[in-house]
Each structure stands twice: as structure tokens, then as C-alpha cells.
Design a protein that fits this description.
Elements (H helix, E strand, L loop, with lengths): L3 E5 L4 H15 L4 E5 L11 H15 L2 E4 L11 H14 L3 E5 L14 H16 L17 E5 L9 E4 L4 H8 L8 H4 L1 H16 L4 E6 L12
Parallel strand pairs: 1-2, 1-4, 2-3, 4-5
Antiparallel strand pairs: 5-7, 6-7
Helix pairs in contact: 1-5, 3-4
Protein name: LmbE family protein
Pfam families: PIG-L (PF02585)
Organism: marine sediment metagenome
Length: 229
């Protein structure tokens, strides 16, 4: 059983999009597993072996567990078999909270967050979380598991987050974790790290913080006045 299970389609997705939050959660004593569906073999930079080793190094620095699946890069599709695969992962790890990329993104082909693997993974996890709690699915052998919440990261530009995590105190360590993915530092003409920091500054501005990471949850969250007093 883990506190947090993060699904990422490619090595680096979780760290690039919500890595500082993960660091914060882990440093506060939570346990976390990152499940990566592919090895990014269709990408422009790095080989599958390099990408996998970079992912292992990033998890080592964070203190997160890692599970790597056998999906093919650019070939993640929503179907019953793939839903079952991810439902099996959920039942195996029995997380309290699941994170996944947001399931809908109409950005252009120039928008990295709109990669079809990202939205497909979000859609798969959305169904898999439901399947994981159904007792009567014969193909799933582990005990059913109802995660308490499914939270989305890697939001499209058109979607304003309804949850933010203040990560101002974790940015230096997050940069060190992100630097594990050296093969991907060439993205955005070598400015990928600056871009990722700018996104966190933007989310931080929304919440009156220096840096924050943005998330979206679809179900109502139970209000606790202690959060505001």
C-alpha cells in the first residue's frame, strides 16, 4: 500500500509536471510510487535505455518507488485491455490518492502537454480507477481497491487549476531531480527548465505564492475550516 500513485506516460512527465509537489509529499513522510507506461522510445532525444536510467535516478533522488510498464510510446490507446492493466496496477499498490495527466487537451501540435499519450493515459486512469474497485471483473485477480481521490496534473492551458500546492521551498531540490533527465534538457531549444519554472511561477501567482504546481479534481472536496484559520 502507498499513499500516492502517479501515472506518467513517459519518463520525466511526473517530475516535469508535478515533481516539486511529489518532493514535498515525500519529505513530509508520504510514500509514493510512479508508474511509467513507456520508455519514450519515439521521442527525439535519448534512447529507451537512457530514458529508463534517467527515470530511475530521478526516483532515487526523490525517494519514490518506480514501476515501468510495457506500453509503446505514441501507441497508448483507451481500450478494455489497457484499462485492466492500469486497474491491476492500482490494485497492486492500493494508493490513497491517484494522480494522472488531465484527460482532455485541445492544444496544438506545438503544445507539449497536448501529446496524445498524455490525454490517453488520463482517460485510461479515469476508467481504471473505477474498474479497480469493481468486485465482479473476472480478469482482475487482486482484491478490489477504491482509491479515495483521482487528481489530475499536466493541465491544458485553457483549464484553471482548482487545487494548487505551494512548492516554493522545494524548487532547488526539484531542479536537481529534473536534471536527472539530461537527455530531455534539449527540449524547447534548451529552455525547458526555464519554461517549467515559469509555469510554476504562474500557478504561484494565482495563489499568492512564489511557486506552485496546479492540479484539477473533478469531485467536490470536503471543506475543512481549519485549512483557512
Amino acid at each position: 500500500m502507498v499513499d500516492i500513485l502517479v501515472f506518467g506516460p513517459h519518463p520525466d512527465d511526473a517530475e516535469f509536471a508535478m515533481g516539486a509537489s511529489l518532493l514535498k509529499f515525500i519529505r513530509e513522510g508520504r510514500t509514493a510510487t510512479i508508474c511509467v507506461l513507456t520508455r519514450g522510445e519515439s521521442g527525439t532525444y535519448g534512447t529507451p535505455e537512457i530514458r529508463e536510467n534517467e527515470m530511475k535516478e530521478a526516483c532515487r533522488k526523490m525517494g519514490a518507488n518506480l514501476e515501468m510498464l510495457q506500453f509503446r510510446d505514441c501507441q497508448i490507446f483507451d481500450n478494455f485491455e489497457n484499462r485492466l492493466t492500469l486497474a491491476g496496477v492500482i490494485r497492486k499498490h492500493r494508493p490513497k490518492v491517484i494522480f494522472a495527466p488531465y484527460h482532455t487537451n485541445h492544444g496544438s501540435h506545438l503544445d507539449g502537454t497536448a501529446h496524445p499519450d498524455h490525454t490517453a493515459t488520463g482517460t485510461l486512469v479515469r476508467f481504471a480507477a473505477r474498474y479497480a474497485k469493481f468486485k465482479g471483473i473476472a480478469e482482475l485477480k487482486q482484491k478490489p481497491w477504491p482509491a479515495s481521490h483521482l487528481i489530475y496534473y499536466m493541465l491544458p492551458r485553457s483549464l484553471k487549476p482548482n487545487l494548487v500546492v505551494d512548492v516554493s521551498d522545494y524548487m532547488t531540490e526539484w531542479e536537481e531531480v529534473t536534471s536527472s533527465h539530461q537527455s530531455q534538457m534539449q527540449l524547447r531549444s534548451g529552455t525547458v527548465l526555464k519554461y517549467l519554472k515559469d509555469v510554476r511561477a504562474m500557478y504561484g501567482m494565482l495563489a499568492g505564492r512564489q511557486y506552485a504546481e496546479g492540479f484539477f479534481i473533478e469531485e467536490p472536496v470536503v471543506f475543512n475550516i481549519d485549512l483557512f484559520l
